[in-house]
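Q: A reviewer asked whether we had any structural model of the full assembly, not just the individual parts. We don't, so I'm hoping you can provide one. Inputs are below.
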Amino acid sequence: MSKQINVALVGNPNTGKTSVFNNLTGLNQKVGNYPGITVEKKEAIVKLSRNLKAHILDLPGTYSLNATSMDENVVVELLLNKNDKDYPDVVVVVSDIENLKRNLLLFTQIKDLGLPTILAINMADRMDRKGIELDIELLEKRLNTKVNLISAKKNKGFESLKQSIIDYNKISLNPCLDASAIDKDYFDSLKKAYPNQDLYKLWLVITQDVNFGKTNRKRIPSESDFKPKSDSEIKRLQQKETIKRYQFINNTLKETLTKDLALAKGLRATIDRLLIHKVWGYVIFLAILFLIFQAIYDWSTYPMDFIDESFLFLSEFVKQSLPAGMLTNLISEGIIPGIGGIVIFVPQIAFLFLFISILEETGYMSRVVFLMDRIMRKFGMSGKSVVPLVSGTACAIPAVMAARNIESWKERLVTILVVPFTTCSARLPVYLIIISLVIPDERWLGIFNYQAVTLMLLYLLGFVTAVASGWLASKMLKIDFKSYFVVEMPNYKLPIFKNVALTVVEKTKSFVFGAGKIILAISIILWVLASYGPTDKFENAEEIVSSTIDHSEMTAEELETEISSYKLKNSYIGYAGRAIEPAVTPLGYDWKIGIAIISSFAAREVFVGTLATIYSVGSEDEQTIKSRMAAETNPVLGGPLFTFASGISLLLFYAFAMQCMSTLAIVKRETGTWKWPMIQLFGMSGFAYVVALIAFQILK
Amino acid sequence: MMTVANLKKGQKAIIGEMTSQDIPLKLLEMGCLPGNHVELIQIAPFRDPLYLNINDTYLSIRKETAKLINVELIEDE
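A: Here is a predicted structure for the entire assembly that you could use as a starting point for your response.
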């Protein structure tokens, strides 16, 4: 019978741990979330030998077992909990050759937990180039373990790493240093109070509660003869522990590692000189931003048009080939367009993550953080807020999640709060159709196209509002915080294609299945609300329309259009739209736009689709909807409904209002309370309403 | 008292006794400990944050944190 063991991969960020995981497991990995939190969990089952399988878990990167973030906490929680089904039989600490010293800190901590701990030193292919020599035999002796040199890039050393995992029970469980020597009395009394517990685990549980306040565990019963220390004494001891570990590491490496310092620097300094230059640094960053926007808004249109047409075709095909009836309508008008509405964003999301993962893999992102920190801090954010704000131009959902690695809670919260102001791609279809209706397609001074300029101004407006509200939020939020800004500046590396591809696939998948569920559900609900009505006016629409209006001059098609628009008016959603009409009239809208706005609270891009349903044009073809919209008249003022005034009012409303339930849900998950998403919902939408109102009243 | 925040570009120093409670533990873990070397590689365009090499690890921290780290300058070699 074959046996299965649990293997945990642990390591510092930027050590290529994920590449090591990819090389060990190939493509059969599974990506999910840890229960209850949105930290990504990557695992895979691999056959090591004929009768041994390994469940390999790629834990989040961490510098030590003193967790300060949700991701890092996952590592500590797992290593402390023997009852966890993933509790490792063996731990592989992945380190990189150039930062061995720092990487060993984590190694010595894990070794103290009494687990078989293998050291895998990655990027061994760089040793010659960097003039590094390592005495493996002596290192193994000092660290009491098996040391493997590997190279994820060149796919070398993995056979012997696998062999070390197979032989895991030959590894000594003794720690390589005695950390309790930092305060002998304290640790002795701790041991006496809980004789059955592993001493280092006890210490971690205690420090964990100090470092990471959210763990309300009761794993250690209180004992009378044990005197707990104050938080500041514990912090002091943690400092001492770190110093003690480094003393051991420094001594060990002095014996085993030689480094030719002159060789180690060259490339970094040269590239840095350019990338963080006080002028060129910003120019290059702007150029890269421009490239990202170009990809998201230009290159993406080709696959997006294709997706759009395919779904229209599919919907039509289902309608033709299935027997007519409620179910067919639900599938062809509710579910298929609903799924299409999600899939259409895949190209943009994929491009976004392609760029972000390349920038992160190469080490460039840390330089951007370095360049932007001072500027972003003026607006209550951190240099690390740049990634969320850039991601926000594709979609706020991954952007809110990207705020996670901002250390200071206040800066992170401000970033999460303002990100939805950046112009996400769901606003684009709304902007495009309204701009084409109300802004003339002419050139100013023969160069600048008014429509293009308007669109650009709207982007700028989104960004400026995000930054300005960041400044405002940081003034208003009374949160005491200390800056824990520490950013590693990794070496420049060429991105590994496999890593980038896997990141893009995973992130896109999690967007489609995460946000997709909500968008799909809403489109089905909308369809139901538009397909049923509270009174029999809806049921008998055909007779009422045929008998009340003179249709002798109409074609069958025109009559059909009249009937469906009468039906919609008397459907549930029609009633809702007319109920809010008094509220939207001062903004220059009618009840139909009112409905489109309500349904947009599911997701903004629904606006165009809803108008298509309302005008029963049958297809989402832009020209058709546009000509219908242009023909609409204003019920109160008379004249065309879509004028410059009402168009601008609508554009401003969409620029500012919080109209995305998926984003609200993700903000709730990331902040742990409904307070912040509610502030966004009412604050942003209220602001949008007031601005749209003022704009219409002035311009009309 | 000289701190990391007073260093000029290219200057090297040795980290002294750590007294402040507000120095993030993460920084210590990355090698910012008494006796280790620190070199100021570069200052960001608006004079903050600072790009350092501490004990062979390259990292950047804000000035407010740098002010908490006491150092002794190594005389120009």
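A: Points you may want to mention in the reply: Residues 3-170 of chain A form a domain with the Rossmann fold fold (CATH 3.40.50.300). The longest strand of chain A covers residues 40-49.
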